[in-house]
Amino acid sequence: MKAYLTLAAALVISTRVAAVTIDFESFGVGTVVSGPGVFSDLEFSRGGETILVTSFVPGPDLSGSRTASGDPFTGNPFRADFSVSGVTSVSVALGDFNGDSENLFLNAFDSLNNLLASDAAFLAANVFGGPTLNVASATAIAYVTFGGIGNFANSLYFDNFAYTATTPDVPPPTNSVPDASASAMLLGLSLCGLTAFRRLLSERK
Ligand SMILES: [Ca+2]
Ligand SMILES: [Ca+2]
Q1: What's the CATH number for 2-168?
Q2: Cα(149) to centroid of ligand 2, in Å?
Q3: 1 CA distance to ligand 1 middle (Å)
Q4: Which residues are close to ligand 2, an ion, with C-beta < 5 A?
Q5: Domain spans in the chain, listed from the N-terminal domain onward
């Protein structure tokens, strides 16, 4: 029992939860934020088209003086691929300046394109701004897609793109050393390895 408790404690201590929000406030208007090299932990894309930082902030939950959007609105949804591992939740605010209605969506997938979680909301035609959609998954999220289905699909701005990730801490804490039985097993394994290596050397002579 003690060994299990020690291992569980080590697992808890040797991971940390990172919470990141991208609000686009530090970018100049017109900056391209899609494609590689913009963010170190994820990459935004939009079916081969660009995503730009805009000064159009239609209303809450979008906030500040910057949002991101496609220009022009050609119908492709937005996508974010994570290079950071262990992403367990994602949220994003989606909205526009009234005019049309959309069925908003946020879908999360694993690296094999399996749908892990999804969220949806109806954005009525008279709304300035829009809601925050949220997804969470015990299985690590590799990428998300988000946008809106309607007469003018994905004619949307997004903001406050946020995620949490459980990432391993390096190096592991000193109290995470294996217990006595595990150490003995490791020693046994390395002795086996050494014997095999010596045998290999003597055969080559
Ligand atoms: Ca913003
Ligand atoms: Ca719209």
Answers
A1: 2.60.120
A2: 9
A3: 50
A4: 96, 100, 155
A5: 2-168, 174-204
